[in-house]
What we know:
The protein is mainly α. The protein has helices spanning 4-19, 34-53, 57-81.
Amino acid sequence: MEDPRFKSFRYGLAVLFMRHPNLRPYAPSAHWWIDEIADYGDAVRFRDKLRAAGGNKVLLEEYERRCRELEIEMQSYFFAGNDRS
Length: 85
């Protein structure tokens, strides 16, 4: 059976690369941020569930904001970890 944390990592990485294709060349370095990418995957899944349910708008807005923050954080990790200057 696959580790649930690894599923979250794979999901988060897939969503991140779909939303930010410019990060795809840096995929080999993703293993450095497994926990952070998994957290992003979990946040995206929960946000999407909130959207589908159409329920608590305040909580949805909070998760929308958190997902954007995590995306910015992930981008900074990828770019900093792959500085080619």
